[in-house]
Write a structure and sequence with these properties.
The protein is built from 14 helices and 8 strands. The protein is of the alpha/beta class and 371 residues long. It has an 8-stranded parallel beta barrel, surrounded by 6 helices. The chain binds phosphoenolpyruvate and manganese (II) ion. Manganese (II) ion binds next to loops.
């Protein structure tokens, strides 16, 4: 096997309904009943914002005794839902017999989960079961941050004869304590894209975030990095979901999320939006520097008065009052107190330099140039 198999991937537009924004795949973590499936799927279809319905049927659970999915009995319900909504159906497969039965039922798209991609023996067995069918396959990253395992799984699927392949970035397991369930390590999906040009790479913000409260920020980051789409877990009643109740969102919340994403406005190009945000950051930085130069000018004048009256340059009581006041003001503006403290420490040290006459402040020369 060469270092990297040259794979030819069919563009998304060849196999999925086109969308004005990124591709959106959404649906429940697990199918729980025909009613739950219908309620969730019909709202997603009615939104007109979702191109594929995802649904877990065989659930990989870390511990025995937890809800492991309804298995193949849910497949005919999914086929019925496809008839009702027109949405193509994607199902996770973890063993060759899962592939076989999905092919029998005519499921549209298969995906390999993180706990399968991590095991090349199982990936190869699934690839063998797919061989000859040409069915589209989505490959989630392995649980561990191992680009080679992810790339290898994609190569095995390609060598089994399908050119309809997509990668799903769902983050990586870590022992570190982090706010997210799985750390994103964005460099890895970006490196995968470099390795396989043309391979669509979408983001699963639900499994990265692990909680709906972080879903929007992970999704925005994925869009900023120009990922090709999203796979989001949606349940009509998330709090009572049998799996992943914290990270699933309602269909209405999904619509809200998509409507507020940069680049999801059909009239707006995400690159243009990014460029306009960057210009805005440039303007803010220039304004900040002007304000800082003005502040140093005042420090210089204070230093002159202190020197004339032999007053101490460092005045800890005044400095403490400043820090307390600015931390308070910063908190009202949503700034982290630790950040404000660090910033003020830097500013104070620089002010002391200027007041001690170590160098003339840029603002004073800029001001005098104007006169
Ligand atoms: C899922 O998508 O429901 C799932 C089990 O995901 P992962 O393989 O990313 O854990
Ligand atoms: Mn899940």
């Amino acid at each position: 096997m060469p270092e990297s198999t040259p794979i030819r991937i069919n563009p998304l537009s060849d196999w999925l309904p086109s969308a004005p924004g990124p591709l959106v795949i959404a649906g429940p973590c697990s199918v729980e009943s025909p009613e739950q499936l219908r309620e969730t799927a019909s709202a997603l279809a009615a939104s007109g914002k979702v191109q594929v319905l995802r649904a877990g049927v065989w659930k990989p659970r870390s511990r025995p005794g937890e809800f492991e999915g309804l298995g193949s009995q849910a497949l005919p319900w999914l086929i019925d839902i496809r008839k009702e909504t027109g949405l193509p159906i994607a199902v996770e497969v973890a063993r060759p017999d899962h592939v076989e039965i999905c092919l029998e039922y005519g499921i549209d798209i298969l995906w390999m989960g993180a706990r399968t991609t991590v095991n090349p023996f199982m990936v190869q067995e699934i690839a063998n079961a797919i061989r000859g069918s040409g069915i589209p396959v989505m490959v989630k990253n392995p649980v561990s941050p191992d680009l080679k395992l992810w790339a290898g799984a994609i190569e095995r699927i390609f060598l089994a004869g399908t050119s309809y392949i997509m990668a799903i970035h769902r983050g990586f397991k870590t022992h570190e304590k982090t706010i997210y369930r799985n750390i994103p390590l964005w460099d890895i999906p970006l490196a995968l894209r470099m390795e396989f040009p043309g391979l669509p790479v979408i983001c699963d913000p639900s499994h990265i975030a692990g909680h709906r409260r972080w879903l929007a920020e992970v999704t925005v980051m994925a869009m900023m990095l120009q990922m090709d789409g999203l796979m989001v877990e949606v349940h009509h009643d998330p709090a009572n979901a049998l799996t992943d109740p914290q990270q699933q969102i309602t269909p209405a919340a999904l619509i809200g999320l998509l409507d507020n994403l940069p680049g999801m406005d059909p009239a707006g190009d995400p690159r243009q939006k990014l460029s306009s945000l960057r210009h805005s950051i440039d303007r803010h930085d220039h304004r900040l520097l002007e304000l800082l130069a003005g502040r140093m000018q005042k420090a210089w004048e204070i230093g002159r008065i202190k020197r004339l009256h032999s007053e101490a340059i460092r005045q800890p009581v005044r400095q403490k009052d400043i820090v307390d006041d600015r931390v308070d003001k910063g908190s009202q503006l949503g700034l982290d107190p630790e950040f404000v403290k660090k910033l003020l420490h830097l500013l104070h040290e620089e002010s002391i330099n200027v007041q001690s006459g170590k160098y003339p402040p840029a603002a004073s020369s800029a001001t005098s140039n104007k006169h």
